[in-house]
Amino acid sequence: xxxxxxxxxxxxxxAARECGVVSIPQRRxxxxxxYGLRVTTFAVIGSGWRAQMFLKVARELGTFHCEGVVxxxxxxxxxxxxxxxxxCLREGRxxxxxxxxxxxxxxxxxxxxxxxxxxxxxxTPPAPDLAGLRALWSAVGDSGLVQVAEQYLMxxxxxxxxxxxxxxxxxxxxxxxxxxxxQYHAVALIRGLLAAGRGPVTVRATRFxxxxxxxxxxxxxxxxxxxHPATTTIATLDFGDGRSGLYDFTDQQTRNQxxxxxxxxxxxxxxxxxxxxxxxxxxxxxxxxxxxxRQTGYDLDLIGYDTEHISLGSEVLYRNPYxxxxxxDDEIAMATLLERTANxxxxxxxxxxPLAEGxxxxxxALAIEESADSDTTVTTSREAWS
Length: 386
Description:
Layout: H1 3-20, H2 31-35, E1 40-45, H3 49-61, E2 64-70, E3 81-82, H4 85-91, E4 96-99, H5 106-115, E5 120-122, H6 130-140, E6 146-148, H7 156-166, E7 173-179, H8 183-194, E8 202-213, E9 216-217, E10 220-221, E11 227-240, E12 243-250, E13 262-267, E14 270-273, E15 276-282, E16 285-296, E17 306-312, E18 315-319, H9 329-345, H10 355-374, E19 377-379
Parallel strand pairs: 1-2, 1-4, 2-3, 4-5, 5-6, 7-12
Antiparallel strand pairs: 7-13, 8-11, 8-19, 9-10, 11-12, 13-14, 14-15, 15-16, 16-17, 17-18
Helix pairs in contact: 3-9, 5-6, 8-10
């Protein structure tokens, strides 16, 4: 993308920021309207499960207003619907566009929004394959207008763990092991906790198949008591400079409560394993300290069910920024991501998760699959976003 085109895009964004908030038709009864808070407007492309989760969280925050949802076929949603982005833009000028579309469609809708000067928050992954990642970066990488909706490190438990690592409590992080979530999400956790950057990574992966019950799906209980073949993929990731990752994922593990979630960060002076830290606090003084979540609503705690904070000993690592909403961790992370995106488009905060990070996550995730498919070691190439 030429420098003149980039300047035009940024000029369009500035114009949108100047006029988008002043003339917002705010939702009746919203927190923003009642308390005079600044409201951020957005449009959604897609109407699946993830899109509706973002709409729910945005509505409950009260400081966001959805100007429209772009869908292929008209349907009833809690926002106006349009069959194209241009039709949506004729009715309003959102501060940013949220894409929640299939991965094969996402690169096109990102480019479409950027071409109209709109900042984008794109659901993961931003493209389905390496060729798609390269084409997407070539089209919009220099625009500075695209963020990726990678929210895992914004979840309370992961945010608290990241705070432990960033404080140097276990020394220099050297290895991260993740067994909980899939592909690019797990890679984002590994890279983020290691501060690994975007250089080449050497991957060795293998797969195993074994029977496993699947009692839960996205829609709830399956009531299926039979075990079915499930594939486990295990991969080692070598980032260089003594930093490595271990990826361990079984089909449907994200929702299958018959498999424990595991996250370990090994450091030069200790280790974090799930919700416990071991370290030395002085000569011949090995100490194990749990990460404790202050969860209200149990027994005779009548405050109501909610997450308050997560602490390590007397130090509070993480405070829930949305007390009283009774949100699950994923909703807290989504709200955090939306608010960071709002700050970014207004120029009041850093990028929440730049496109370069999202495409690097996906590139490594693709290398894991390639290595397992071919039963060979794969080293990722250094790309334009590196």
